[in-house]
Amino acid sequence: MATYDLVVIGTGPGGYVCAIRAAQLGLKVAVVERRDTFGGTCLNIGCMPSKALLHASELFEEAGHSFAKMGIGVSQPALDLPAMMAFKQQGIDGNVKGVEFLLKKNKIDVLRGTGKVLGTGRLEVTGADGASQTVETKSIVIATGSTVAPLKGVEIDEKRIVSSTGALSLDKVPGKLLVIGAGVIGLELGSVWRRLGAEVTVVEFLDRIVPGMDGELVKQFQRLLEKQGFAFKLGSKVTAVDSSGPMLRATIEPAAGGAAETLEADVVLVAIGRIPYTRHLGLQEAGIATDARGRIEIDDHFATSVPGVYAIGDVVRGLMLAHKAEDEGMAVAELIAGKAGHVNYEVIPSVIYTTPEAACVGKSEEELKEAGIAYTVGKFPFTANGRSKVNQTTDGFVKVLADARTDRVLGVHILGREAGELIHEAAVLMEFGGSAEDLARTCHAHPTRSEAIKEAALSVAKRAIHM
Ligand code: FAD
Ligand code: NAI
């Protein structure tokens, strides 16, 4: 029987990073994976394919709308969707092969099949052919991720009624796309298909889009998306989708109750959140506790209720983000190896990869108010940033929130081009407990969009130069 120091179940960003870090620290490691390829949701049907399509569709739209004003004459771009999908697949293949290479390089054994925890030190792996093997290991890390949250009355077939997985592989551009849920997936994949020609309506239960993000940012974000052609039906819910005719017919009701209406669509995308994926793990038999939302319960050191069994990533509490899973993977590997692993949950950036991008790190104004923390605000619009002006990409702004007493930066919110890249200087500053004054006194190269962050920091003390 094979024996290991550590077996990791799942090779998504949480699992593979954990395995590599543990191997670096000298542990004998194996991973268990039931999918044909490594990399989990993120690399196969999540972050990576969506970013490939966001990139390609953004350039498609730019070629049609923005090139002419820069004096670049091109004929109206023609969409070759199969070629765009092949571009997406090449990106996926490159990344999943990269993980395979890294596992090999770090001498990590791969156990193909579905992992089930038998208890402390033991698990079972069942291959696609049904054959099982028992594996002994000092520690087990569960990193089995998440799956699509179902919606009552709406049966996903991944063809016309799709989750994000189907929406990443449609074989033609839908005339009308109805998105259920104005969260990250709805806005990103809604953007892809809108740019390629779909008429997109987003139905959202709450009275705002992207709950959790700073309210002021979200208001401007929604206006910009509407300008691009998004239609939002807020405070509404889809209660049924009739797929018997050539067009889908969705029944939409006000969230607060009232008269229903019907909307027709070629494709309906269900994007109302994700739930932990624990189906094959045998949690109950093994005595591994879960919470009311089905997430595996862990302590501050990622330990489950069964000694020697840990859990990380989407399958546990917290943000369902690849980089959060990765950092937990590294931390738990270090803890298992007897070192001090740690994740700072106060400084985890979030990015929505639309045009413009929306990015934040730390607290929103709403959260600071709710916590009763006195804060100061510094804001700077990209309309006043020289580089944005010359490139004519002036949508959005930077907002820096600092502690009113200590000036320590508590949150940074950016709406604008490349916000997802810009946000990291704020993350580094906050990781080091930096102040708005520190940011304001850091020399920023000119002309860059990053200067807007410096100006927002200057504006905390009411001394922005270009405004
Ligand atoms: P996963 O990546 O879900 O990996 C779990 C792995 O475990 C899978 O490979 C699965 O096959 C395997 N597995 C499950 N059960 C078993 C078992 N019993 N035995 C063996 N193997 C098993 N996050 C971001 O940070 N940025 C983004 O841009 C982003 N975009 C996204 C876009 C979409 C469309 C979606 C759906 C998600 C996106 N996410 C993004 C979220 C991100 O994908 C997840 O947060 C991340 O993948 C979680 O990593 P994980 O390791 O916890 O689990
Ligand atoms: P989400 O939690 O971001 O958004 C779901 C939205 O659906 C919310 O606004 C919610 O209020 C709404 N909703 C819930 N029930 C509803 C109903 N019955 N009718 C109408 N609206 C309803 O979830 P989403 O977009 O599915 O994404 C899942 C996860 O994947 C997210 O938690 C996110 O962390 C991750 N992800 C991250 C990305 C990124 O980092 N760029 C990209 C895509 C996904």
Structure commentary:
It is a single chain. Helix content is about 35%, strand content about 25%. It has about 475 residues and is an alpha/beta fold. Helix 3 packs parallel to helix 6 (about 185-195). It is globular and about 65 Å long. The mean pLDDT is about 95. The structure holds flavin-adenine dinucleotide and 1,4-dihydronicotinamide adenine dinucleotide. The site of flavin-adenine dinucleotide has 36 residues, from helix 1, strand 2, helix 2, helix 3 and strand 4.
In a few lines, what is going on in this structure?
The chain is of the alpha/beta class. It has 14 helices and 22 strands. 1,4-dihydronicotinamide adenine dinucleotide binds next to helix 6, strand 12 and strand 18.
Write the layout of secondary structure elements.
Layout: E1 3-9, H1 13-24, E2 29-33, H2 40-45, H3 47-65, H4 81-105, E3 109-112, E4 114-119, E5 122-126, E6 132-142, E7 146-148, E8 161-162, H5 164-167, E9 176-180, H6 184-195, E10 199-203, H7 215-228, E11 231-233, E12 236-242, E13 248-254, E14 261-265, E15 267-270, E16 274-276, H8 283-286, E17 309-311, H9 322-336, E18 350-352, E19 357-362, H10 365-371, E20 375-381, H11 386-391, E21 397-403, E22 409-416, H12 419-431, H13 436-440, H14 451-460
Parallel strand pairs: 1-2, 1-6, 2-3, 6-17, 8-15, 9-10, 9-15, 10-11
Antiparallel strand pairs: 4-5, 5-6, 7-16, 12-13, 13-14, 18-19, 19-22, 20-21, 21-22
This protein binds flavin-adenine dinucleotide (FAD) and 1,4-dihydronicotinamide adenine dinucleotide.
